[in-house]
Amino acid sequence: MTYDYIVIGGGSAGCVVAARLSEHPEYRILLLESGGPDTNILLKMPFAFTVLRDTPMDWGYSTDPEPFADDRIVPTARGKVLGGSSSVNGMMYSRGHPRDYDQWRQLGAKGWSYGDVLPYFKKSESSWRGAGPVHGGSGPLRVTPYHSDEPVSRAIRETARATGHRVLDDFEAGDPEGFALPDSTIYKGRRESASIAFLEPARKRPNLNILSGAHVLRIILEKGRAVGVEYLKAGTRHQVRAEREVILSGGAYASPQILMLSGIGPAAHLQTHGIPVHCDLAGVGSGLQEHPLVPMSFTLKKPLRFTKRLRADRLALGGLSWLLTGRGLPSVPLSCIAYHKSNPELERPDLETIFMATNMLARPWFPGWKRPQPDALTTMSVVLRPGSRGWVRLRSANPLDKPRIQLNLLQDAEDLRLLRHVTRWTRDFVRSAPLSEFVDEEILPGSSFSRDAQIDAFIRQTVTIGQHPTSSCRMGIDEEAVVDPELRVRGIDGLRIADASVMPTLIGGHTNAPAMMIGEKAADLLLAS
Q: Could you tell me how far CA 206 lies from the centroid of its own chain?
C-alpha cells in the first residue's frame, strides 16, 4: 500500500505527528507501532505506574555493564505500547529551563530557541490554568495540578522558605529554580498519554491508519531517498511506500537502531554486522545523554496517609470507586520537586531533587497477612546537564535483537561531584526545621557514609537514571549532527526524525512534554515543505 506519510513509532512525538498530519484530509498517514494497543486498565491508572516495568508493555532494555558505575547493568525502561513512554511514565509535565532551548539555538539549531518552541508547547496544552502567556487553553493534552495532602509535603515547602529557597506556583512561568509541585498529565483520575490526547480524537479520520504490533525492520532506501518501510506483523513481512516522507519517531534507543539497520550510520560498525552502507553518518547512535539519579531515604516520625491508603481492603474499595468515578485510589505520592543550584553564581539550576512521601518498598498490606513497610521520605536527585556521553549500537543485524546501550554514567568526574554535593545538600535540607520535626533516621545511604570516598562508592553502587534518554540522533549543523534544524536526516532525502533523540543537549527537566513539542514542530515543518 502507499501513503503520503509513514510515521514509525507511536510514542510521545509520533502520536503528535500522525494526529496533526491527519488533520489535513488530502494526506494519507500510516502510524506503525511495535507495541500493542493501550487498552490495559493499568495504563489508565496513575497509581499503577510503578508496576508497568518488566511487563509486555515495556521493552526490557538495559545497558551494557557501566564501566564507571561498578560495571552494573542499569535498566532503561521504554514503553512498548501505543503512546510509548507517555503511557508508562510518572506523568509529570515539565518543559525544562527556557535557556535550554536558547542554548540549542546557539549550538546551531535555528528555529529552536525558547521563543520559537513556546508556541508549540502552548499548542499541545489545555492547562487547568487557562490560556495565557506561557500556557495553552485548548490543546489536546489536558494538564492538571498535582496535589498532596501529606503534612510532610507542606513541611518541605515551609523548610524551603526558611532556608532561602523560592517556593513557586508554576515551574513553567519563567525561571523554574525553586520548590513546587509540578503539573501532571492526569485528567479526571486517569493518565493522559499522547495516544489518549492526540490519537483518540483522530481515530475517526479515514486518512489515518494506526497499526499496532508492527515491528519495523528497516527503512526502504532507493537512490538516496527513503521511499517506504518494511515491517513485521504476526510473523509476516510487509512493505509500504511513502510518496512524500518517512518520519522516524522511535525514541533515543530505537531511532538510531532503525537507522543503522537501514544502512544509515557509522560505516565501520555497519560493515561489522554485514549491513550495506547507504549513508556513512558517524553521529548516529553517538552522544547519548541521560539524567543520572541517586536515591536517598529517611524514616519518618509521623505516619503517612499514603501508607494507610495501601491497606488491601481500602485499595479494593478505592479501585471500584476509581472505575466508576475516577476517584478513590491513591495517586502518585509526589510531595515536591526542587530545581536548585550547586553554585549560586550559575545561570541555571544544575540539580533536581524529587521528594516522595513513601517508602519505595511500600506495597499493599493487611493485618494478619502482610505488615506495611515503615514510613519513609524518599528523595531522588539528578544532575540536570550531565557531562557524560554514551552510545547506542547494534547487537546484531537481526532487527528483533535489542540494541546495545552504554550510558557511561559518571564518566565525567563533574557528574560524580554534583551527586556527592546533592547527597550532602539533601541531608542538610531534611535536618532543617520544620521538616526536621518529621524526619528521623537516614536509611539510605546511612549517616555513617560521611567521607567523600564513602559517598562516591554509594553513588557508584546505586546510581540509576531518570529515564530521559536524548541526543543519539543529534540536531545541528556540524559534521557529527544526524539531522538538520528542519529534522531532515543528513544525506538522505524524504526522511526526518521527530523524537527526543534529536535534542542537541539534554534539557534541565523531564522529556515527555518536550518530545510532544518536537512532534508539533515536526508536523509544521512537514506541512510547510
A: 31
Helix (H/G/I), strand (E/B), else coil: 485: coil
Secondary structure class of 48 (helix, strand, coil): helix
| Ramachandran bin of 524, using left for φ above 0, alpha for ψ from -120 to 50, beta for the remaining angles | alpha
Q: pLDDT digits over 462-475, tens only?
A: 999 999 999 999 99
Distance CA 413, CA 452 (A): 13
Q: What does the block give as the cell for 149?
A: 495532602
| Cβ-contact 517, 12 below 8 angstroms | no
pTM above 0.90, yes or no: yes
Given 278, 291, 468, 510, the catalytic residue: 468
Q: Does the pLDDT at position 134 exceed 90?
A: yes
Calpha distance 294→383 (Å, rounded): 9
What's 400-411 look like in SS3? CCCCEEECCCCC
Cell numbers of 85, please?
513512554
Q: Is 384 in contact with 351 (CB distance < 8 Å)?
A: yes
24, 60, 130, 470, 526 from 10: Cα distances, Å? 19, 17, 28, 17, 17
Using DSSP's 3-state secondary structure scheme, residue 119 falls into helix
Q: Any catalytic annotation for residue 468?
A: yes
CB atoms within 10 A of CB 254: 27
What is the distance of C-alpha 264 from the center of its chain? 25
| CA nearest to 498, candidates 162, 160, 246 | 246
Phi-psi region of 91 (alpha: psi -120 to 50; beta: other; left: phi over 0): left
Q: Place 213 in a pLDDT band, splitting at 50, 70 and 90.
A: very high
The continuous run of DSSP H or E covering 334 comes out as: strand 334-340
Instruction: Give the burial string for 48-84 (b: 16+ CB within 10 Å, else e).
Output: bbeebbeeebbbebebbebebbeebebebbbbbbbbb
- In this structure, what are the phi and psi dihedrals at residue 359, rounded to the nearest 5 degrees? -75, 125
Q: Any idea how long the chain is?
A: 529
Element (H, E) at 244: strand 236-248
